[in-house]
Amino acid sequence: MVAALLTLLGALLVYYLFYFIRDLVKNKGNWGNGSWLISGAIGFVTDFLDTLGVGSFAPTTMLLEITKQLDDDRHLPGVLNISHAIPVMMEAFIFITVVKVAPLTLFSLVVAAIAGSFIGSKFVTKLPERKVQFFMGCALIVTAILMALRQLGMLDLLGAGNEATALTGGALVIGIVGNFILGSLMTIGVGLYAPCMAMVYMLGMSPLVAMPIMMGSCAGLMPVASANFIKTGDYNRKVSLGITIGGIIGVIIAAKFVTGLDIEVLTWIIIVVVIYSGITYIRKGLQPARVAE
């Protein structure tokens, strides 16, 4: 099953690269404005953070705004997806091959997230975005508190080990349903990383196991979305390529850092990430709803 998953991701990567390289060649000399150095630095920082589970979209958006790399804000969605597609795919390949996860668990949860993003999105996009973000944020904060109490030895509810690398029976069903829902929620701006980390931990699995699951899920989604932006030309080629190159370097360094961490240290990092994400979602949820133009 792991081989089948890697084959699927590899095929999606080839699909994405075909359109990306062809578009760069076709538009040689017309790659847009921006700085190679700044874009590369943005890619390095954001994909380093992405490998730690922080996510790359929000930091990239912030840094692009600060550095004024984009002349047209309409190119932002395309740049976010295209520039991070290869780094996220690398993250998935690295963690799927390095971190031990039961093949059935890994394959089931990744496919569930991919299916959720395509099938469930037809229904989830009709939900009130701000309310979903707010309640997801609250749930993440509560989860982070429970995780912290467990780490401090003040709560036995979450079990004694958190060393499992597989889900079975009812826990596997919960994981599949949960990741399907998380895949669906991605369509309205609720990132999969932090909720997936929290879910995996709450189901008793090792915190490190969340990495291949959440990265494999996103790696299956981004190439398709990126290809669509490339076909329409709605992105800045120079900035996207610069971020991609810097991001690849960031992933390689961060992956060595993460896989070498003690589980106790990694768990505390995840707690911080979950709290950060929870606060971000709550802030988004409290903003006025966007009015359709």
From TrEMBL:
It is a multi-pass membrane protein. Its main location: membrane. It comes from the Bacteria. The chain crosses the membrane at residues 6-25, 37-58, 106-125, 131-149, 170-194, 200-227, 239-259, 265-282. The keyword Hydrolase does not apply. It is found in: Cell membrane; Membrane. Keywords: Cell membrane, Membrane, Transmembrane, Transmembrane helix. Belongs to the 4-toluene sulfonate uptake permease (TSUP) (TC 2.A.102) family. This is Probable membrane transporter protein. It comes from Enterococcus alishanensis.
